[in-house]
Each structure stands twice: as structure tokens, then as C-alpha cells.
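Response to reviewer comment R2.3. The reviewers asked that we include at least one raw input/output pair. We reproduce the pair for ArsR family transcriptional regulator here without editing.
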Amino acid sequence: MSGRRREVLELLRAAPGAVSIGAVAERLGIHPNTARFHLETLARSGHADRVHGAPDGPGRPPLLFTARREMDRGGPRNYRVLAELLADDLARADDPIAAAQDAGRRWGARVAGEVHVADGTEPAIVWLRDLLDDLGFAPEEPSVAGRGGAIGLRHCPFLDLVDTHGGMICALHEGLLESAMDGLPAPVAVEGLTPFATPDRCLVTLRIEAV
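Raw output as returned:
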């Protein structure tokens, strides 16, 4: 967040009530258009709310802004400790690999349930490639030949945990991908995930069913 925008947000937080664009501009010594820009940006990002004041004459009521009363979502995040704790917990299961696969399958089922993909092989493979990209796997372009295919992965979003929990992390990802594709109405399935098929990439193998 820019220094000026943070000043605007701090002004809203300190105000006892909603503040107008003109008041923000006057208090910070900036042009009203600049104040409006920062206020609208704060509203779009969820840091502020737009409210309408009481009409003081003909025309629209004045547009006011107030800080949203919640924890600062723009602060730093650190999920590594949480990931390590969850991985340690999985490792205590009777069969850690199976537990990780089950967790991945639940994750994949939820992902597949939130999307609508057109029927057919190509839309399904494109969707899988986009999913891998969104999750941070840096996928290569899929290669398809006959009834098989593959997608190379150049990055692992949980790479920091691979040294200590590599088997579980790969099982989690394999379960995720298998379940996600099983939930699509398409003749494509994830046949497996090969960790470090080459030193710099993992490999997702695909099976394309006859239709």
C-alpha cells in the first residue's frame, strides 16, 4: 500500500464517523480527485466502505467513506509454520502416505465442485493446467499423444517441506490432482505424479479414455 493511501486509511480509522472526499482532501492537503482515487481504491480492496450521508438539498446524498473495522488484511503472512504443524500431524497417522492422499482427494473434490468445465479432452486438460498454475506449480504446456499425456511441473509450492515430508507432500498433490480430474465430466484422468522425474521438474501423467 502506498504511503499516501495508508495516510488516507489512517485518517478514516481515526475519524469518529464517515468522512467525505472533500474532508479527506482538505485534511491531507491533496486534490479532491486524488482523495477520491485513494478512497475508491481502499473500498475496492476491502479496507473501506462507501456510505451515503443525509441529503443536504436537492440531488444525490453525499458519498462518505468509513474504515472497515477488521484486522489489516494487507499485513505480512507466514503460513510456513502452520504447514509444518499440519504436516507433522499427518506424519503421526498410522499410514501417513494414505492419510495425505485422502486429504488431497478431499481437496480435489472441493476444487472440482466449484467449477464448470466444458465436456471434452482439451477443455479438461487446459483446466488442469490452469489449476496447477494457480496453485503455484509453474506447469509446462501439456503434451498429448494418443491415449496419454503429461504436464511437467517446474515448481513445488510446498518445496520447503519436501526434505522432511517429501512422501506425504507428493501423496497430497497426487490425491488432489486425481480427485479433481475424477470430478470432471471428461475422458481424462491423472494416472500418476512422478516426483523429480528430472532434477528440475516433477511430472503429471495423464490417461485419456476412449469415447
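The helical segments are 3-14, 21-28, 32-44, 80-91, 96-113, 121-134, 159-182. Residues 80-208 form a domain with the Muramoyl-pentapeptide Carboxypeptidase; domain 2 fold (CATH 3.30.1380.20). Further pairs are available on request from the corresponding author.
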